[in-house]
Design a protein that fits this description.
DNA-binding, 2 domains, homodimer, Arc Repressor Mutant, subunit A, 10 helices, Tetracycline Repressor, domain 2
Chain lengths: 202, 202
Amino acid sequence: MATRGRPRNFDRKDALRRAMEVFWTQGFDNASMTDLTRAMQINSPSLYAAFGSKEALFKEAVDLYVRTEGNGIWDQVDTVPTAREAIEHVLRASARAYTRGSESRGCLIVLAAPQMQGANATVCDELKKRRANNVHVLERRLQRAVEEGELSPGTDCRAIATYFATVQHGMSIQARDGASRQTLMSIADCAMATWDKLVQPP
Amino acid sequence: MATRGRPRNFDRKDALRRAMEVFWTQGFDNASMTDLTRAMQINSPSLYAAFGSKEALFKEAVDLYVRTEGNGIWDQVDTVPTAREAIEHVLRASARAYTRGSESRGCLIVLAAPQMQGANATVCDELKKRRANNVHVLERRLQRAVEEGELSPGTDCRAIATYFATVQHGMSIQARDGASRQTLMSIADCAMATWDKLVQPP
DNA sequence: TTATTTTTATATCATTCGTAACAGAAAAGG
DNA sequence: CCTTTTCTGTTACGAATGATATAAAAATAA
């Protein structure tokens, strides 16, 4: 219970945050243990003792990413009054999250393990599931809007959710290519211009 | 001039095509020499003799990709009568190119080297330039449409070009996550639904 | 002091890309 | 026809780096 033995010489949370930054900019495979330990300012045995493995560290880093950087993107989807506002908020919050000062990094969930073959299969799956879940969150929100009368029955909620998720994913690539926050916002605006037409009854 | 020495025992074009497939599904870093030589059915010294290096092989593979798989996407942009048709064609042709039978692979240009740090910097730059060029092609096409009267003056050609490129990039991620051709087509439809609103005078 | 845990440093074992050495195959020149 | 030249194919290797494990030293609580 009480901490016995030699106390840890580094802040676990802080080390994890640094690891997240490395994974965010380098991806899973491209982040070597050397990169990680240097950034975390610890030696590899400390890393293994504290986190278990590179893979486990990555999963914790993804969790942290979602809780911190990704926070403010998805949490308002169900609280905001309309589906339209919810989706617009997701896109604009993404544009904000993907750019930080002059740096544009895009989304860790989208970019950290894009090769579905080779590499670590469980890592790829982990991220893939999270992406799929995001689509589902949007889809459910749209369905709710149908039930509440905001959208007409017969709206293809899945198609619309997939479309907006696609735009969000594309924004990550643009960010990696150096797109500014302003550019990403403009993309969000263009995407939202679809709204009235998309939700029209067919 | 005439070929002297022992003749090559494999078809260079065929080997290159196989290498392209490997790079397409695995990306640059994730494609190991072992993966490549096995797929190409040659030993590594033959690879180095015929292509120079992994990097040079990749660049040739990208060229081949653009000439074959990517063909039919961009070549009609300037010949089709309207900008609207041009862009719709790019999106739909992309949806077709990114899916092949039951396989969905997305775009090599977008997916083969997404980490801009670490890895091979020249490879990343190569792909980044090609992506930027695609945006430019769209932008010029839109500008032409303005000049020809199809679109109203004051249309923000760059923003619209960037937006549609973003959708195309996002489609690659969706494809990697297993999206069917039908799903990608539906995404293209949603994106095109923006058209009338986007090109409205502000 | 003893037990427990972390740190540092080093070892390990696989895999990476790339090369050197040599044998085999064809054309060029006598 | 035989030798020389020039190229390819094969095998094996090398140097570097990857992730992970072990061993001894250090630090703290009981």
